[in-house]
Amino acid sequence: MTARPDGTDGGPSDPGEPIGDAGSGARPGSGPETGSGPGPGSRSGPGGRAPGAHAVGDSGGGALLVVGDVVTDVVARHRGPLASGTDTASVIRTLPGGAGANVACWAAHWGCADVRLLGRVGAESAAWHERELTACGVRPRLVVDPQATTGTVICLVDTGAAAERTFLTDSGASLRLDPGDWSDALLDGVGRLHLSGYLLFSESGRALVGTASAAARARGVPVSLDPASAGFLVDLGVDRFLSLVEGVDVLLPSRAEACLLTGLLDGAGAAAALSRLVPLVVSKEGADGALVARDGTVLVRVPAAPATPLDTTGAGDAFTGAFLAALLAGADAGAAAAEGCRAGARAVERVGGRPPARGDGAAATPYRAHAG
User: Fold this and answer.
1) Where are the alpha helices (DSSP H) in the chain?
2) 327 contact partners, CB below 8 Å, separation of at least 6
3) Is the pLDDT of residue 203 over 90?
4) pLDDT above 80 for 361
5) 8 Å CB contact between 310 and 342
């Protein structure tokens, strides 16, 4: 549903019709039944699963609640260095994005039957973002900011072999999410709470992290967090970040973030060190797959799934969404990380950070969660 603080319900116009990507496929592990999802005001979970979504089983683990950023991505794909002071030929698309929103969409795509998202957007694109999230099987609760516009990220993607990307980020309304947007009722029926690390980069977001985490702990709901951005972590400070994530059950850093947080150069050593501070650490190692660490030891090394990268935007979000969906279905951490790598591989072969919407018909091999 879309929450409007001013009590109005007039729908904002679309920010230009986004141009979809015709390709589908996989991303290195960072990394519908046809029919519409619930309407904007619906409180019921989406029925069925998109064809092409991985079935993670009929989880008795409850819903996944994601709290985080919803932004508009402007993806500019170019080849080679940018030509300073003049033109660089590019293919440009406007797509829905945001780390929190992407995680929610991939969790739903990977078969999680009830995925909810709390975020804050501007009035100019609220209706568009709500439709896009609902089309992916997510139940959105979007607070419409009366002052700020929706965050925008310009993604510069070099179309060379690595498909590496650089972000120019205007977080906009997403950084204004605050404890006033929270209600403990959001946790009703929730089996896991996931927090986007971007929340930690504003005072109001940090306050919300504290409020939501405390409410989850009081109900025995495990909390996961993705550090989100090595660049922003430098500005926030490592010690401050580590103090803010005390009580988090699962940390999902990239290798660069894990190394930054520990001061170590080795990804495995960094993951192991972090697991002395957080019960479960799952480090996303890109083309090298993923590491699962507990109690100061790397327990599992998961290889990346094969992929031909087109755009690495959102690979880590895809990993996180599939990983959490598998955990909710009863998979152990190693099996869940393998699902994360498969989702990351799918993501890199698409433009943008989202899976195909329901009805797009991307084929996938069903996964059945197992004990152990």
Assistant:
1) 99-109, 126-135, 203-219, 230-236, 238-244, 255-262, 267-274, 315-328, 333-348
2) 61, 192, 333, 336
3) yes
4) no
5) no
